[in-house]
Structures are given as C-alpha cells and as structure tokens.
Amino acid sequence: MAAKAGRERETYRHGDLRNALLQAGIALAREGGRDAIVLREATRRAGVVPNAAYRHFASRQDLIDAVRAAALAELAQAMEAEMAAVPAGSVPAEAARAGLRAVGAGYLRFAREQTGLFQVTFPFPNDPRGEADPAKAGPGGLNPFQLLGLALDRLVAAGVLPAERRPGAEFLAWSAVHGLALLAIDGPLRHVPAPFTAQLGQRLLDMVEQGL
C-alpha cells in the first residue's frame, strides 16, 4: 500500500493524473493508432496502478475519446499552419483558392506524418459541423471541419464559388481528400514512394478546387 501511494504521489508531483494518462494515451496512439490505446498501459506509463485510471476515465472508450479530441486539435493546428503560410496581400480570389488548398494540404500532411493520431480521429460519432468542443479545436478556436467550412465561405465571399453551390460542399471536398489519405495509409498507395503520393495529393487538391 505504501509503495502504491508513493507511485501515485510521484505522478501527482509532476502534474495532474488525468493529463498524465491523456499524454500517455496520445503517445500510444502515435505509436499504433486506436488499437494501441489501452488503459493498463497508459497507467503503467503514467506510473500509477491500473485502478487509479478509473477516477478520471471510466472506461477505455473514455480515454480514446479524450485522445481523439487531442488528435483533432493537432490536426486543426496543422491545417492552420498551412493556412497561415498563404502570402498576405494576395488578390482575394487567389487567396481564397490558396486557403482551400492549404486546408487540404494540412490534412494530408497530418495524415502522412501523424498516421497513428490521424487514425484515432475517425469515425465521427456525430455531424462534425456541430462539434463545438474547444478541446477539438486548433489555436484559432475551430475544429478541422470548421476550418474547411471557413475556407469554403471565403471562396463564396471572393466570388469564386457560387453561393448556391456552397451547401454540402464540405462533404465533397472532405470525402476526396480523406479518401486519398486512407489509400496512402491502408490502401494500395501505402507501397508507393512518398514523392509520387505527394504529387497525387497536389493533383487531388487541383481537382477539388476546380470541381467546386
């Protein structure tokens, strides 16, 4: 009992236990995706006994949900970073087009570089347009799907995308980009050299932009 208490005190000395377990879950996801997130392993990495986890996560699914929120926030951050790289002072139409491409590029880059975390972000249990949880948002306060919506709204404002074609456009763009990401992770493109996959990504973004 004394050893158990000592381990828990040591963890708390370095920060709160819930966050320690969450960070362990995130690390497990980076290594092996959703299947790698196991409460017992998370508690081992956090330095506490397994039962200690249930004070903060009632089940493995609770921990997965928390890791998923963190993964969505990282995905949003990657997308925002691409959007921030769009040159300032561009012609509105050109800036809007570049912004849409940046959203897609950030999505594909995250899927390629953070495959384990990317796999945890899906499936979406609800309509992503209504997921307003700040834990799933990037620095700008928007989640990945909302960032896509923002890029599409800017296309409309710049006169690039007719307003009557705006409803549901998120799902068209998302399905195309997400589909390529999955083909590169678990499909036939996983054996293709990275430069070719990157080239396909750019062509896909061209197709999405022109198709919309």
TrEMBL record:
**Any one GO molecular function term:** DNA binding
Gene3D superfamilies registered for this protein in UniProt: Tetracycline Repressor, domain 2
The entry's protein name is TetR family transcriptional regulator
Question: Which species does the entry assign this protein to?
Answer: Piscinibacter gummiphilus
